[in-house]
Amino acid sequence: MKSFIKKDFLLESKFANTLYHYYAKNLPIIDYHSHLSVKDLAENRKFENLTQVWLEGDHYKWRAMRANGIHEDFITGNASDFEKFLKWAYTVPYTMRNPLYHWTHLELKRYFGIKELLNASTAESIYNECNNKLNASDFSARSILRKMSVDVLCTTDDPCDSLEYHNQLIAEDFETLVLPTFRPDKVMAVENQVFYNEYIDKLSGVCGMEIGRYKDLIAAIRLRHDFFNENGCRIADHGIETFYGEEISEAEAGKIFSKIRTGKELTEFEILKFKSSVLHELAIMNFEKNWVQQIHYGALRNNHPKMFEQLGADKGYDSIGDIPVAKSMSKFLGNLAKKDQLTKTIIYNLNPSDNALVASMAGNFNDGITPGKIQFGAAWWFLDQKDGIEQQINALSNFGLLSRFVGMLTDSRSFMSFPRHEYFRRILCNMIGNDVENGLLPKRRKWLGKIVEGICYKNALEYFDFDLSVKKNQDSFEIVEDDDADAIIVTTFEEINDEETKNTAQEDINHS
């Protein structure tokens, strides 16, 4: 059976088709938050088979396979790559109405031109066809970024990272701008003092200084912050369970840090205050360098103790948390704003019940100078599916300015995830297009097209101030689409079939 991914996939109206195909479809990608391996990029990894490029590290797929009764041997275990792929192919038909079903077939089509549905009966032929293309054509890690028109890729990096692979890519003049992101989560993770002290010892070695006092800790973090800045970093990212905004003096922080370094148990309140102190200091550093800070909150991680002990973190055992957050978020942002030390900030929530909370909170701290300074971030992780994306867009529209939104990201460990940008763009254009068709927005094609271009690309370029002046031209995949007579595909102004849209577009041009 042929794929259902047609030209009008997710596009329910003529105007939605016009917006997507004329304004959004061919824009390059700015992926300002990902977990891709920069080592794979620096070494220009060639993937031996489809399992390696598609299933390796993808905990979204792993969760689905476990839910479908697939044994761990075929997920993270010792089964062969082909056996793991067969189990995934068997699972795919059972993922209907899960975003994985859409993503799977988008990825097969965009990367490999596969138009068949993936299931147990088509698995072997699809596996072989994809492997032939992986082996016969230029499908290396770098080539994938080129061919998917990725202008900017930001990775996620620990403060102790040497950034040698980022520097290698710069030295080799790789066409995509690949930048590090400062992710200091381990500097705050005091719940497990054994692991924490081991990490502080590692940080001490990297910095070449003793870290026995709280002042030393902050000095060491600043050294690494400076190092990242010197090596092109312009973004910090903080993965936190909730916000931390407790008032704490430097003396109090010093006493708590002394307890940590001597192995004395902390109270819950001491943990909360220490995290508040460190996060505040990090936010000030971000402000001083004019970095954008991203804050991802709300995940309840490593819920399965046995599997965490067996496999470690990021293996698909995390879920949505429900810790109250409004007051602590307000305190954190307010403590910075009252001293004019609040930098550009993007807040991502994982619990959809917080959508209105975050969207309304962001509006409290815009400064009337920087457009969209405090952003309600894109639908994240469990929410980056059609329903979650629509809810995020609606909340942002209701409480803020959708037109200033910096758009989508992959947040992925897979080089096959870039079609998530297409997925988001289609959903965005569909929502705006349907509003036009329903009379909720004026049919102003040029203006709405400009807003779509901003959300899908240009807003992020300006917000993060990425320098693409030395970027070379990139080849791109030929997008594989089926003939679909019912879709309204616009590639030039003259091809607009809807007379009213054409007239309105001409009015926009006349008044611009």
Structure, described:
There is one protein chain. By secondary structure, the chain is α/β, with parallel strands linked by helices. The chain has a domain at 46-139: uronate isomerase, domain 2, chain A (Orthogonal Bundle). It has helices at 14-24, 38-42, 50-54, 59-67, 81-91, 99-112, 123-136, 141-147, 164-171, 193-207, 214-230, 250-261, 268-288, 305-311, 326-337, 355-362, 386-399, 419-437, 445-464, 499-511; strands spanning 29-31, 150-154, 177-179, 235-240, 292-297, 299-300, 319-320, 345-349, 374-376. A four-stranded parallel sheet has the order 4-5-8-9, with helices on one face. Strands 1-2-3 form a three-stranded parallel sheet. A two-stranded antiparallel ribbon has the order 6-7. α9 links the parallel β2 and β3. It is globular and about 65 Å long. It starts with 13 loop residues before the first helix and ends with a helix. The model is unreliable at 472-479 and 482-498 (pLDDT under 50).
